[in-house]
Write a structure and sequence with these properties.
The chain is about 30% helix and about 25% strand. The protein is globular and about 70 Å long.
Length: about 500
């Protein structure tokens, strides 16, 4: 009997990035398969191929032994494949019931929506998590009023409301508390007994070991191992994801622990807490490049935003030994702190404005009133030259630039302010190799000049190659600190999954 779903040799390229090269998996009815891999391994892309979000460039997708090709998530759902996405797909302005049944509303004979039936079915679904949700959560509650864990549960209920044959859970437990996770696992057991197949993606190795029947490991877009979960040790899976022999091709002279100890502490954070962070404490030294690693969504972005005054927090932050509490990014900027966002289109650039205006956005006040445009243009030109910005001219629209050059503008506008502390939120995502190399040289130069850099990156090789120290975040906490001989890819991957550190070579 053929497996319920089989993926054979899937391939997918995004521009210069080969996300999948030779990815394969099989899953049978009534089985839970753990899809495991480090950052950038291709887990999300493979999931999107299966659920019709992404069209593969090559390979085969077989359902019940027959070749299929899904042109949309709707087509995949019609075939019985439902997904709980890592990025929630709920509409905040709509109610819980409206979100769950969106486009599938029960209708009366006159084709009007049957709200009574909709509420009744929603109540039945909510009862599946009874005892783990607040009592006043009803089908009519707006999603905008829900807490993160409640939104995640609504997303799960939306996925199972179609009675899928295959359910993909992509980090579905990330926002849930222990009671909710345990209840989800009980439900998974019930769904499996009915013949539902489940692909389970999680950053928690303990969950994978508890719930999975089999595993499939991706590395660099390729399936490198699969088997029964009962026969696999956590260390063996980590070794598949990141062999001990792997190393970074990025070369940078790193500061030793003794070098760092001799340098002044410019930033100290004590017990920092947000809706995501659970008590983060760190010290960062002058001229240090501190890496922040871990699987996506473990609190890295929240840490950078809190430091920059972009997210409310409790705890203590000290600059040069003096306490500060930024409630707005302008306050952080006035103290020499800068944040380069990873989403350059949505957060970093004014796409319809000129390159000159984008470079000067944070710095206009420095040029007085009326504006000293000659000096402003000279400064912008100097930064453009320093970054080797390929452009038609400063007055050209920033939308005319390539992705790599657009990211240079995002960085350059902050360099104009000569920041003392530079926060980087996955800054090289979607940037070509040559521009990355230029960026690495720039970071080295900035650190040599005394700038303190805190870098979050989803590229493990980048973190290993650039960081003087590397803090690995897991579930909103600092799970591990890597430096010196322990700064290896295997240790980074192990810490990302909450596994004990591997032996250093």
């Amino acid at each position: 009997m053929p497996p319920l779903l089989a993926v054979r040799n899937a391939a997918k390229r995004y521009g210069a990035v080969q996300a999948l090269t030779d990815a394969s998996l099989e899953i049978s009815a009534g089985e839970t398969l753990a899809l495991i891999g480090a950052n950038g391994s291709g887990k999300s892309t493979l999931s999107k191929v299966i659920n019709g979000v992404v069209a593969p460039d090559g390979g085969q997708l077989l359902l019940d032994g027959r070749m299929v090709r899904f042109d949309s998530p709707h087509a995949a759902k019609d075939a019985g494949i439902s997904t709980v996405f890592q990025e929630l797909s709920l509409v905040p302005q709509m109610t819980v019931a409206e979100n769950i049944w969106l486009t599938r509303e029960p209708l009366r004979r006159n084709l009007l929506i049957d709200r009574r039936t909709e509420r009744q079915r929603t109540e039945e679904l909510l009862s599946l998590f009874g005892g783990t949700l607040r009592a006043d959560l009803t089908p009519d509650t707006p999603v905008s009023a829900l807490l993160p864990d409640e939104r995640q549960i609504v997303e799960i209920l939306k996925a199972i409301s179609v009675n899928p044959r295959l359910l993909i859970l992509d980090e579905a437990t990330a926002s849930l508390d222990s009671r909710q996770v345990q209840r989800l696992f009980e439900l998974i057991g019930q769904w499996k007994a009915r013949g539902t197949a489940i692909i389970f993606i999680s950053h928690r190795m303990t969950e994978i070991e508890q719930i999975a029947d089999r595993y499939s490991v991706l590395r660099n877009g390729q399936t490198v191992g699969e088997g029964a979960m009962k026969d696999a040790a956590a260390g063996d899976l980590v070794a598949l994801m990141a062999p001990e022999t792997s190393s970074s091709a990025i070369e940078r002279h790193r500061l030793s622990p003794d070098d760092l100890a001799a340098r002044r502490v410019v930033l100290q954070i004590d017990d920092l807490r947000t809706s995501v962070l659970r008590g983060v404490s760190i010290q960062v030294h002058e001229g240090e490049l501190l890496g922040i690693g871990g699987l996506k969504g473990q609190g890295q972005r929240d840490l950078l935003l809190a430091i920059f005054g972009g997210a409310p927090y409790s705890g203590r932050i000290l600059l040069d030994g003096k306490p500060v509490h930024f409630t707005h990014p302008r306050q952080a900027m006035n103290h020499g702190v800068a944040l380069v966002p990873g989403d350059r289109a949505g957060e970093g650039l004014l796409s319809i404005r000129a390159i000159l205006e984008n470079l000067l956005v944070p710095s206009w006040r420095a040029y007085g009133f009326p504006l000293r445009m000659k000096r402003a243009r000279q400064d912008a030109s100097a930064i453009a030259t320093r970054l080797d910005l390929k452009m038609a001219g400063l007055d050209a629209p920033v939308s005319s630039l390539s992705g790599g050059n657009a990211q240079k503008v995002v960085i350059g506008k902050w360099l104009l302010r000569n920041p003392r502390i530079l926060l980087l939120d996955d800054p090289t995502k979607g940037v070509d190799i040559a521009t990355k190399a230029e960026f690495y040289r720039l970071l080295t130069r900035l650190c040599d000049e005394g700038t303190t850099v805190i870098l979050y990156s989803s590229d493990d090789e980048e973190l290993i190659g650039l960081s003087d120290r590397l803090l690995v975040m897991h579930d909103g906490r600092i799970g591990s600190e890597l430096a010196g001989a322990s700064l290896t890819t295997a240790n980074l991957v192990a810490a990302s999954l909450g596994v004990a550190r591997m032996e250093t070579p």
